[in-house]
Design brief:
- Pfam families: DUF1329 (PF07044).
- By secondary structure, the protein is an alpha+beta fold.
- It is built from nine helices and 18 strands.
- The strands form three sheets. Strands 5, 6, 7, 8, 9, 10, 11, 12, 13, 14, 15, 16, 17 and 18 form a 14-stranded antiparallel β-sheet that branches. A two-stranded antiparallel ribbon has the order 1-2. A two-stranded antiparallel sheet has the order 3-4.
């Protein structure tokens, strides 16, 4: 029996074998057809992401936490097993922001401190952004690394909804449409990068609250002027008992009043954050007290400059990332053990003045707390034919809370441009996480932004807002009072 050469195929024209050139051409054609078919499938509006099987979903609460993190610790014990998270009675009035109230954390001492002198020892567990800050500030920048405390904990209704979402949730419209999920984490056992980002956007932060958000655009010499915002938020998606149908395609309602500086007082931003932003883009309005009218604001999205940021962040960088995902492709690179900001109770302290936090070059390095945690790593690449100031973004997402803890943002040349971190604390009497400070370091301008701070402002409070509070008519009336 004659053996056919590995490169030979029957010819369409009667000859027994085809040439290598013909084979290559046919292979290219075959690949093109497969690629075209795949592209068409991905572009189909009704195309949905695969669901998790009931068998796999049963891992939640067994070897996985209720939200999908690994319960077990790591091999050397430096990351402990999750034991249910951190819970405690509400501190006495006025003590909610006293670090001493958080007994699990307040007595901890750093295990070690990373500086430029020993950086090489820890590089493998640091983001590119963290390494860039050591390079920029070799004599003053450092990271105090504390024992890892897996404090994450959520209410039972969030855990139950997450288990249901695991087998019901789907994505359509190229990832911009969430189907069959409500209240809990939509994809606790993620199979793609975009699912991880959806988990961050819809993680539990309460259901209805009022908070203060001070932003400090810190100049190279350390000077800043606080830009203070009062923000009313209704996290409609997270309300217990709500159904996907009753959301009316809105995940959250957001109302932002500027309270300082004086020249900006009275400016208002209103946002209805839609779930499917292909079907209906984010609804946004601006109220200007000089014009005394509210108007639509389609530019409150994507890479337009964020309110009060002095051009140091884009709109979609508030809360590390928010809004539509359609300008990027999202690749899930897997999970890594990394040193990230976590449990930063010192930054929560309302005895601190902003001048004690913001320093020339970078924030006061004695205040942030870093720990070793497992994070999901997601790489976002700008799609051809779309625009954004960031060509590439690397996201590092906590496995226990689904909070984006760090972001590396790259410019159009592929050069690291802005380094972002989220410092958070488990509000242990409320079973939820809250931000205490976000930072965005601009490596090109030698300036940085601190945001989502409230040390010199009132404590957040849970307020039962209804949807009418977030209507344009209501905003106009409130602004004119």
């Amino acid at each position: 029996m004659q053996t056919r050469p590995a490169h030979a195929l029957p010819s369409d024209h009667g000859s027994r074998f085809v040439s290598r050139r013909a084979l290559a051409a046919r292979s290219r054609t075959s690949r093109l057809l497969r690629t075209t078919a795949l592209s068409c499938a991905l572009l189909m509006p009704g195309m949905a992401e695969a669901k998790v099987s009931p068998e796999e979903a049963r891992r939640l609460g067994t070897d996985l936490t209720p939200l999908g993190g690994e319960k077990k610790g790591n091999a050397d014990g430096s990351i402990p097993a999750w034991d249910g998270g951190y819970s405690m009675p509400q501190p006495a009035a006025g003590k909610e922001r006293d670090p001493a109230s958080y007994k699990l954390l307040s007595d901890d001492k750093p295990l070690y401190t990373i500086s430029s002198a020993n950086l090489a020892q820890y590089k493998g567990k640091l983001t590119a952004g963290a390494q860039a800050l050591f390079a920029r500030f070799p004599s003053s920048y450092k990271m105090n690394v504390y024992p890892t405390r897996r404090t994450a904990r959520t209410p039972n209704f969030i855990n139950a909804a997450t288990a249901k979402n695991a087998v019901d949730a789907e994505l359509g419209n190229q990832g911009e449409s969430l189907v069959g999920a409500v209240t809990g984490i939509p994809f606790p056992i993620p199979k793609s990068g975009i699912e991880v980002i959806w988990n961050h956007k819809l993680r539990y932060r309460g259901t209805s609250l009022q908070r203060w958000n001070a932003q400090l655009a810190v100049q190279a010499n350390g000077a800043f002027q606080p830009y203070v915002l009062r923000e009313d938020v209704l996290f409609q998606y997270n309300k217990p008992g709500i159904t996907p149908e009753s959301l009316n395609n809105v995940a959250l309602y957001f109302l932002q009043f500027t309270t300082a500086p004086e020249r900006q007082v009275g400016n208002v931003v209103l946002v209805h954050e839609t779930l499917d932003q292909v079907k209906e883009p984010r609804r946004a309005w601006l109220y200007n007290p000089g014009q005394r009218r509210i108007r639509r604001a389609p530019n409150v999205a994507y890479d337009n400059p964020g309110t009060g940021s002095d051009g140091l962040r884009t709109n979609d960088q508030l809360d590390a990332f928010n809004g539509a995902t359609d300008r990027y492709t999202w690749k899930l690179l897997g999970k890594r053990e990394m040193i990230v900001p976590y449990n930063s109770v010192k930054l929560l302290d309302n005895k601190l003045k902003y001048a004690q936090i913001a320093k020339a070059g970078h924030m006061n390095v004695e205040l942030p707390r870093y720990e070793l945690h497992r994070v999901w790593v997601v790489e976002a690449e700008l799609k051809p034919g779309t625009s954004h100031v960031y060509k590439r973004r690397s996201f590092y997402v906590d496995e226990d809370t689904w909070t984006i803890l760090a972001v590396d943002n790259y410019d159009q040349r592929g050069t690291l441009w802005r380094v972002q971190e989220t410092h958070q604390v488990q509000l242990a009497w409320l079973d939820r996480v809250g931000p205490v400070c976000g930072s965005v370091y601009d490596l090109q301008s030698n300036r940085y932004l601190l945001q989502e701070m409230s040390n010199e402002a009132p404590l957040f409070k849970d307020v039962e807002f209804n949807i009418d509070h977030f209507s344009t008519g209501s905003v106009q009336r409130m602004a004119e009072r």
